Amino acid sequence: MKKLAIAITLALTTAAASVAVVAAVKDEPIKPIRPAQELNLAQVELGKKLYFDPRLSKSGFISCNSCHNLSMGGTDNIPTSIGHGWQQGPINAPTVLNSSLNLAQFWDGRAADLKEQAGGPIANPGEMASNHTLAIEVLQSIPDYVREFELVFGSDKITIDEVTQAIAEFEKTLVTPNSPFDLWLMGDEDALTDKEKAGYKLFKDSGCVACHNGAAVGGNSYQKMGSVEPYQTDNPAEGRVAVTKKDADRFMFKVPTLRNVELTYPYFHDGAAQTLGEAVEIMGRIQLGKKFTEEENAQIVSFLKSLTGDQPSFQMPILPPSNENTPKPEPFDS
Ligand code: HEC
Ligand code: HEC
Fold it and tell me: Which residue's alpha carbon is nearest to atom 30 within ligand 1?
């Protein structure tokens, strides 16, 4: 009875607190990032191991974290990724941070959600170059993994479905609340400098928010790269048309999130813009037909940097060792 009373009091206090928070949030086209909700913590822990496990790749060397490095904003900070056998990737690696907020995954939205996405890189010959049968064989050979999968999913037969489910659940934790901008949204006037506030005003008044809005400041629509002036690039990617086969979708790309954009250089699907200043100049010109002064550009850049939130923080997972039954890694072509 006492326990129940405490639980009710707690629930009421939490409800009251969240009402207060909701009431204080400014009415703006950008919304604060919320901490991850309704997580299956056992799946998260397993998914974290899998995210860091390079044995899901043919070489035994490339993990999700190789290209989506959680110490570097969830990306690799190079124009296009390096895959199996040092292959040059075709496109820039987007950040995994806040990717749970995307309307779909990949630049062209070809995967519906994180679970569907996670199966891709393991079997992509240009990325991890394994296949789902081999990846399962590796995991199934390691008793600690078998035990953990059984604990989490209730069966000692590991499936790729469980692998991608666990990775996706872990990725849901990779949200970045509490950026200075969000603290300002939630009522802390001092969380932003005047320069950052001026940058946000320009960002709104110039029309950037038409495409970059919502909690992720992007990620919720496909838009043409080059609305008012064509984008010059050697990269052959044509965006959404690859999925829909509709000509109108040529050069339509998923609008990237601008959360943590200070950390996720270089920019655009071809990784051609090295700095935020360059990216802002190009966006103004080709999406809006606007030329910003040096001062305006610097203000927008400082606003964008205020979107950096709390980075994921957790204990490094320790991976169970391979044994004599584990298929051997093949880092080099024989
Ligand atoms: C060799 C580098 C590489 C590896 C390894 C890799 N990725 Fe990626 N990832 C990329 C690239 C490049 C893209 C963009 C591809 C595209 O859009 O066509 C991407 C896209 C994504 C996206 C979509 C994000 C968005 O905003 O659309 C997610 C999520 C993701 N990867 C998660 C993972 C997970 C989980 C793993 C491990 C199972 C993984 N990646 C392994 C390079 C890599
Ligand atoms: C018409 C929609 C639209 C408007 C307006 C727009 N953007 Fe974008 N933005 C996009 C799309 C689409 C991309 C990704 C394009 C690509 O790489 O092919 C993008 C990419 C970016 C990037 C690079 C992010 C990354 O991770 O690669 C930045 C920074 C950016 N926009 C800032 C701005 C700013 C600042 C403005 C206003 C001056 C603006 N955008 C206006 C649609 C838009």
Answer: 96
